[in-house]
Design a protein that fits this description.
Blueprint (H helix, E strand, L loop, with lengths): L1 E2 L11 E5 L4 H14 L7 H11 L2 E9 L2 E13 L3 E6 L9 E2 L2 H17 L4 E4 L9 E13 L4 H7 L2 H12 L3 E5 L2 H18 L6 H11 L3 E8 L2 E11 L2 E9 L2 H5 L1 H15 L5 E8 L3 H8 L4 E10 L16 H9 L2 H12 L4
Parallel strand pairs: 5-7, 12-13
Antiparallel strand pairs: 1-2, 2-3, 3-4, 4-5, 4-6, 7-14, 8-13, 8-14, 9-10, 10-11, 11-12
């Protein structure tokens, strides 16, 4: 069933091994376990495999079994970058993905197995995006917050659920001559990448390769789509959303400069909330994570979302230096300003090469 990697962790009372994600039966069993445990889409083998196909970073994972039944799962991406080194990340290119386990002993065993695997793979670090920090690991708290809330019962109730000032902005967007499309065809993908690439360039960060978005859409099939706001034939704002466990996860979204004047982003997120409820049978909306106190953090609060602090954990191998891949850190301030000055076509050519290592 799984590759022969079986370190002993007596406290877990489970057999721990590397999952063979190329085995459909194994992947399906893990997927079922993720749903039972209430995991996120970033815990799914489909996410790991899509990341591998889209970026070249290897899909890995550690599974715990007892009497042939899965009792624990840790999704991992083996990230290698000439600029940022090697690391095991749970989960790569995601905001969630810590250990899923039936008890804390199993979760601890998965984390210890990840340490050992990291050493075997010459990785200097393991990062867990979710869950409690194992003993001896660095806990990272207070840096980011998540934003999740229930969706309203209909479109009008959804509008009224938005705080007054932000609701006024949404109403203005509804009066503008904008149209909304939803799909996954080539035209949707081209529009989305154009909007997203312009948005991250304006923020001073490299854009991910389009192959990553294509691979995620392929891997999630009818559980993902792209919603785009247009002004005539010009896409102004677009978002790629995952649907999992009754929750909409708008994950990669952005807009061009014109989006601000037309309030296309307001139109986009309101339309997505309505679409998620009416067409996707969702009852929850996960606005994603933002750095505490940042512009996006305050923007999401303006929509009536309450921030929920996120907890991550990091283990650094002996004699290794911790990676810094956070584009909002002080170390990158000057580089960000320089990147903003690059012509967009140049940034779009260079960005994917760098961004493959920003898992």
């Amino acid at each position: 069933m799984n590759a022969p990697f079986r370190p002993a962790y007596p406290g877990s009372q489970a057999e721990i091994s590397i999952a063979d994600l190329g085995d459909d039966d194994v992947a399906q069993a893990i997927t079922a376990f993720v749903h039972i445990q209430g995991g996120s889409p970033f815990h799914l083998p489909a996410w790991l495999i899509a990341v591998e196909r889209g970026t070249g970073q290897r899909a890995r994972g550690i599974v715990a079994t007892r009497d042939g039944k899965i009792v624990g799962w840790l999704p991992l991406t083996l990230v290698h970058s000439p600029l940022f080194g090697r690391a095991l990340v749970s989960s790569g290119f995601a905001v969630d993905g810590g250990p899923l386990a039936e008890d804390t002993h199993i979760a601890e065993g998965l984390a210890r197995a990840a340490q050992e695997l990291a050493l075997r793979l010459s990785c200097g670090e393991v990062e867990l995006r979710g869950g409690e920090a194992p003993a001896g690991w660095e806990a990272i708290t207070g840096k980011h917050a998540g934003f999740v809330t229930d969706l309203a019962e209909d479109d009008e109730a959804q509008l009224l659920a938005i705080p007054r000032k932000q609701r006024a902005e949404v109403r203005k967007s509804l009066k503008n001559d904008l149209t909304v499309t939803v799909g996954t065809k080539e035209a949707d993908r081209v529009a989305h990448y154009a909007c997203y690439a312009a948005s991250v360039h304006n923020l001073g960060t490299p854009v991910f390769p389009r192959s990553l978005f294509d691979a995620v859409l392929r891997g999630f099939d009818d559980r993902a789509d792209i919603l785009t706001v247009w002004e005539g034939e010009q896409p102004l704002a677009s978002v790629l959303t995952l649907y999992h466990g009754g929750t909409a996860f708008p994950f990669w979204g952005g807009g061009v400069w014109r989006a601000r004047a037309t309030r296309a982003n307001e139109r986009m997120y309101y339309a997505l909330m309505c679409h998620a409820r009416a067409e996707r049978d969702c009852t929850r909306f996960d606005f994603g994570r933002s750095k505490t106190g940042s512009g996006p953090y305050n923007y999401k609060k303006n929509w009536g979302f309450e921030p929920e602090p996120l907890a991550y954990a990091r283990w650094t191998a002996p004699d290794a230096e911790a990676r810094d891949v956070d584009p909002t850190s002080d170390a990158y301030a000057r580089k960000i300003e320089l990147w903003k000055r690059l012509p967009l076509p140049v940034a779009n050519r260079l960005g994917p090469i760098i961004a493959r290592g920003l898992a």
